[in-house]
């Protein structure tokens, strides 16, 4: 595939991942993601807003705001049990695979074109 075509494809992939990249670009949301990862180790149900607030030293409304951004970016899921909501990472249904693919394609592109092994421009 020609260099320009690859660049167009990468630009399209970046566009598809834009919301997820913005979501994980915030340090507070990164701490929430780390807490969600830890909750996967500790429990198979996920974690509630109140517990996330304690772990991140944020108010419940602040945690809820950040969770909404992560959910809208399709990075986290919520499981409802009665009146309780449990937030968790689900890599099978999230956009983490899109991010992984994007970064893999960037790496492959750079290897190919930095090695000079591509033809067309």
The structure class reads: mainly alpha
State the CATH superfamily name.
Answer: Winged helix-like DNA-binding domain superfamily/Winged helix DNA-binding domain
Strand order of the largest sheet: 1-2
Secondary structure: helix percent? 55-70%
Compute the gyration radius: what is it? 18 Å
Pfam families: HTH_5
GO molecular function: DNA binding; DNA-binding transcription factor activity
InterPro entries: ArsR-like_HTH, HTH_ArsR_DNA-bd_dom, HTH_MetalResp_TranReg, WH-like_DNA-bd_sf, WH_DNA-bd_sf
Keywords: DNA-binding, Transcription, Transcription regulation
Characterize the structure shown:
There is one protein chain. With 121 residues, the protein is mainly α. The chain has a single domain, classed as Orthogonal Bundle (Arc Repressor Mutant, subunit A). The chain contains five helices and two strands; from the N terminus they run ααααββα. It has helices at residues 3-24, 27-42, 49-56, 60-72, 96-114, and strands spanning 77-81, 84-88. The longest helix is centred in the N-terminal third of the chain and has 22 residues, at 3-24. It starts with a helix and ends in a 7-residue tail after the last helix.
How are the elements arranged and paired?
Elements: H1 3-24, H2 27-42, H3 49-56, H4 60-72, E1 77-81, E2 84-88, H5 96-114
Antiparallel strand pairs: 1-2
């Amino acid at each position: 595939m020609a260099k320009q075509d690859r660049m167009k494809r990468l630009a399209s992939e970046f566009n598809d991942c834009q919301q997820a990249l913005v979501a994980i670009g915030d340090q507070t949301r990164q701490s929430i993601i780390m807490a969600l990862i830890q909750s996967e180790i500790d429990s198979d149900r996920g974690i509630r807003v109140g517990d996330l607030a304690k772990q991140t030293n944020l108010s419940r409304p602040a945690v809820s705001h950040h969770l909404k951004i992560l959910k809208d970016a399709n990075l986290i899921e919520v499981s409802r049990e009665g009146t309780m909501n449990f937030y968790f990472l689900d890599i099978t249904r999230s956009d983490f695979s899109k991010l992984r693919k994007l970064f893999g394609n960037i790496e492959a592109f750079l290897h190919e074109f930095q090695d000079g092994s591509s033809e067309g421009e």
